[in-house]
Amino acid sequence: MNLRGRLVEVGEEREVETQYGQRSLAEMTIRPDGVGSADATDAADGDATVRVTLWGKWTHTADLADPGMDLLVTEAEESEYRGETTYATSKESYVVLEPDFLVDVTDVRSWVQCPRMYYLNKLSGIPLNYPVVKGTVVHEVFGDLLRGRDLEDSIDERVAEAGLQLGLLGYDAGEVRDEVRRNAAAIEGWLAQGTLTGEAADAASSEWDGGPSEDEWRSEYTLISPTFGIKGRADALRRGMPVELKTGKNLKRDPRFQDKIQAAAYALVLAERGVPADTATLLYTKNTALDRNEESGDLSPAKEFSVGKGLLDFVVRKRNEIAAMEFDFSVPTGFEADARCEYCFEQDTCMVVSGRLDQESKAGQIGTPLPEDEREYFDHLYRAIEEERRETHREYRKLWEQSAEERADDDRALINLDYLDRREIAGERWELRARKPDGAVSKLREGDVCLASDGDPVGGHAELCRIRELGEEVVVTADEPVELRRLDVYPSEISVSRMLTALHDALLKGSEDRKDVLFGRRDPAFADRSAETYIDNNEAQNRAVRLAVDADDAALVHGPPGTGKTYTIARTVRALVDEGQRVLLSAFTNRAVDNALEALREQGFEDAIRVGTENGIREDMLDLHLETAGDPNDRAAELNDAPVVAATTSSCGSRMMREQSFDVALVDEASQLTEPGTLAAVNLAERFVLVGDHQQLPPVVRAENDLQESLFERLIDRYPEASVMLDRQYRMSQRIQAFSSAEFYDGALRPADGAVAAQRLSDLGVAESALPEELRDPVAFVDPDGSRVGNTNPTEADRVAEIVDAYVAAGVDPDDVGVIAPFRAQVAEISKRTDVTVDTVDRFQGSSKEVVLVSFVATGALDGPIFEDHRRVNVALTRAKKALVLVGDADALGSDPFYARMLHWARR
DNA sequence: ACTCTGCCGAGAGGA
């Protein structure tokens, strides 16, 4: 049986005499309830504790354990001792610390080389370098070969796909193709050997009947292990045994140890799925025929080795070391292993990082430590980012912990799909189709990468796929055919990793000048190089452009709703380019990046490149999109020569963008970005301009931590003189903007001119007299006397729909009406009753409508965190141009001073 | 208690 629980007490290791001789043991006390999977609670009832003895080598894990950690013992032996039921590890047992902390297989690999290498990889990311790019190409070609694809076709296409990266590294396609061809020859030679003849091609063409079966080849197998807390992707499986491809050379008789560990980790995860693998193969594809002819005779690329329980135990223990270290956010020193620093390629990096961050390390330190406030900042954000990582792991857990129905409720999956069929498509890939059940909704969108499965994404057959169509019929493409019954959002740690690298780059690679400003040691400096006038009809906008052009370090532009931020940004970019500056134009969302580009083009500027994934970019900006595939030189030149590069801040953290440098980074929506998120863009430039509004929604983070305050907000508080507030708004009538202006902008936000101030529905040809009495004021309040049911209020939803109808009946175009609600549940409720746009506040940010209705849902009292952040209300109330209707319960709204003032204003 | 956009995916190599 499996035993799992929270550690209450951790006993010391001790030696005892047994019938098998002297053995070591350590006794643990755990509280089995309330943790993890269902079988965790098999052992005991209530909050009783149980004792479990860890024998032999598992005392190593006991040594790492601390009270509070989650402990899992598989195949535990139960025995009675003086009336008490106790447990102990058996021969088959594994002991897993913090199984919910998902460790990547490659992390185990680097940890085995040196724990410090694990840390350095995590911190600084893997930079753009040729071995990685070529390695990736070879892996892709390998997968293609296994699927029976023509070798030359595959090499041509895969090398072309890596065009931009190769170009940035200064390689040309021909030489790379030749080199890949040499690696591929080793693969082909191996595939053709002895009993393997023709197998790959046979497997590829054979009928597929679900999960992996014994005699088949599989490429790119996505594996997640809830039991062992490991995830990863095996390069291939042959007859259920992992095959790991290496692009390098290994002329020794045995595989490299860390490579064995990597392959063994895949074998471990396969064992959990009931497909035990007792052998694994490492394929060193740089070993050539020439090498083979040498005397030892066994230098073929393939090295097989057996995977016994002892090796698997070792993998689990190493994985436990990582989990234990991450549990209290500690930093590995390198002393945990007996790696020899003098042979290590990372020695210099390791010493610099140790020296600058004042970390203990086996390699020693170089250089002087960063100032204390910078180190504190690092420690603080490092921890916050790691907390975010754990929240991402929770998303993984939902893949197996939630029942299908719960999963459906939380919007992150489409379940119970009716599998229709599959079809082989170009590139030896597959197109899979299924029918969606009526009314199923999810956050999945066309173009997303997600996990397609036969209904069981963890224990069954799952493949990463891309969504092509998401209508009544669901169409996805994948490398292997799955019986498509379920689609899940595939959680990714990418944004977390990128935050970490941005933090690292800012502190360890960033210029002192910039850090002085970031850490409040020096006020931002300004030169006098701007022209007098850039924008002649809006004094604040003009000042904003001048501030940005004059900034030697940083400028901050505060743009409340409707104040022409995007226009000002575009004008600023042009002014900077005119000064000969190379500009990075960035923002949190794709939408904002595209809006800024659109404004640039409207102002006649076209010389920009849009970097990012194709499906994130709006169609009318795709002509500016930088293709990553193609001739290396051309692709690299396109990027390197662009005076303006536009990308989301997330893309700025990509390997390719990290190689770019700019004079100025201009970041929109900066108030919605975490500090590390902002740094990803800021790091790439000499100077930066942040544009945002800290009175609107803050950054979205999963964990409660200090990532919630944006760099924009921190800096604007610290350096008000380096900022300009755009104070003229072009969106709302005087009546509508009054409350927001008074509450959030000290009354400084004003209509740009009389026409904006005085706009009314009659301007749209609507007869206001046709509206019910209660709606004739541009700001109205309606209390429908409903009651809150969960996060909905059906009566209020009815009333909202009636009001929408009233506006439409009076002549308002339905496209000009929008409804906003705080909860998604209420959004769904209202959507059932009307065809106009209905969305949450958060999703409405950035857009506007002539008529806006806000449904507050709450009755009786304002219970819930969603009502606590008044900035959300600011967003909701500032979407309307000519008419705004607040629909809610007067008692609830009156119970809080802020909402009471809002009510007072609305009722006037 | 609630809100939720990004990004792609994990990788490789060098004594």
UniProtKB/TrEMBL annotation:
Gene Ontology biological process terms in this record: DNA repair; DNA replication
Domain DNA2/NAM7 helicase helicase: 538-628, 637-702
Swiss-Prot/TrEMBL keywords: 4Fe-4S, ATP-binding, DNA damage, DNA repair, DNA replication, DNA-binding, Helicase, Hydrolase, Iron, Iron-sulfur, Metal-binding, Multifunctional enzyme, Nuclease, Nucleotide-binding
One Pfam family this sequence matches: Dna2
One GO MF term attached to the UniProt entry: 4 iron, 4 sulfur cluster binding
EC numbers, comma separated: 3.6.4.12
Residue span(s) of domain DNA replication factor Dna2 N-terminal: 46-237
Catalysed conversion reaction: ATP + H2O = ADP + phosphate + H(+)
Keyword DNA damage: yes
Listed Gene3D superfamilies: 3.90.320.10, P-loop containing nucleotide triphosphate hydrolases
InterPro entries given in the database record: Coronavir_polyprotein_1ab, DNA2/NAM7-like_C, DNA2/NAM7_AAA_11, DNA_replication_fac_Dna2_N, NA-bd_OB-fold, P-loop_NTPase, PDDEXK-like_dom_sf, SF1_C_Upf1
Domain DNA2/NAM7 helicase-like C-terminal: from-to ranges: 707-890
Cofactor(s) the protein needs: [4Fe-4S] cluster
Family membership: Belongs to the DNA2/NAM7 helicase family.
Protein name, as recorded: DNA helicase
Provenance organism: Halogeometricum pallidum JCM 14848
